[in-house]
Amino acid sequence: MNTLEFLKYLSNSTSVSGYEENISEYIVNTFKEYSDDIDYDKLGSVIAIKRGTNNVSNLKIMLAAHMDEIGLMVKDFDDSGTIRFTSVGGIDPRTLVAQEVIVHGKREVFGVIGTKPPHLQDSSDSDKAFEMDDLYIDIGYDKKTVKELICIGDIITINREFTELQGNSVTGKALDDKAGVATMLQCAKELKKLNHQADVYFVSTIQEEVGTRGAITSTYKINPDIGIAIDVGFGKTPELDKADSIEMKKGPAITLGGNIHPTLRQKLIEVAEEYNIPYQIEVESGPTGTDARSMQISMAGVPCLLISLPLRYMHTTVETINMDDIKNSGNLIARFISEITSDNLEGYLCY
């Protein structure tokens, strides 16, 4: 499977938190080629398992990247037939004005997000940012017809197509964190070329955007020796300080902080340098807000790493990432996994 085509399919598909089943089958069918078994946790996270060789000590490494995306949900109808909505996950209302949407009702219905024209706004409001309650969706029907097609609680996604940019960069909706799932696929492809002792669990987790829930339940199911979360970080743009962002096309960011096991992190850096894989350092002093945080504090605790992919315009409809960073991240993780054995694990986990 071509990693670019895989990511394109995921980005163009719908998997709002709580409704990830729309892409589960596609992920399963893709990972079957690179794994030995497929499993699920009870919430619906997909677990593709690649067995290691001579793994008599049952060594397990869990990779986690969330397959859910932020979105919207129908909450009410106006007398004119327009739809009021709320968010699922963290959405900035300023990014929604004039967007095209798909309302996933009894059938998919195209609509547009509107608000009061600037000509009719009070002068005191003209400089204020819109809030969610100021916005509505217009599908063109009257209220009676709208309610025949759409129910309160139906999900809504932005109508945005995945597009290739220059320099091997791509843009689309929900690359946070479908790019992480694509990185796991790249890692699985690379591992087919390598010997590794550990059983590797590629987990496409659910409901990360509303509380890293799938990472918790899947960690309890797997009980891994090491957890590696793959998510996105703030790609450098002109308005961002260097200390608050990571550079595009300069490789994965290896996170440093309390959520991350220090010796495993150092081993990951050594592997990157040994194989000339570009990398960056990302500093996060507290909980990372990713699946790594939930894996780390599940059960009796799991030593964790976090790989961050540089992504611009996070939680907008034009998230942008570079495919070279995905490839380098997947290859780095695969090389790291190949060097972890039952004989050296205890040494790496000692403080």
TrEMBL record:
Zn(2+) 2 binds at residues 176, 209, 315. The keyword Protease applies. Zn(2+) 1 binds at residues 66, 176, 231. Keywords: Aminopeptidase, Hydrolase, Metal-binding, Protease. Its cofactor is a divalent metal cation. The active site is at 208 (proton acceptor). InterPro entries: Peptidase_M42, Peptidase_M42_aminopept, Peptidase_M42_dom2. The keyword Metal-binding applies. GO terms for biological process: proteolysis. PANTHER family: AMINOPEPTIDASE, AMINOPEPTIDASE YPDE-RELATED. Belongs to the peptidase M42 family. This is M42 family metallopeptidase. It comes from Anaeromonas frigoriresistens.
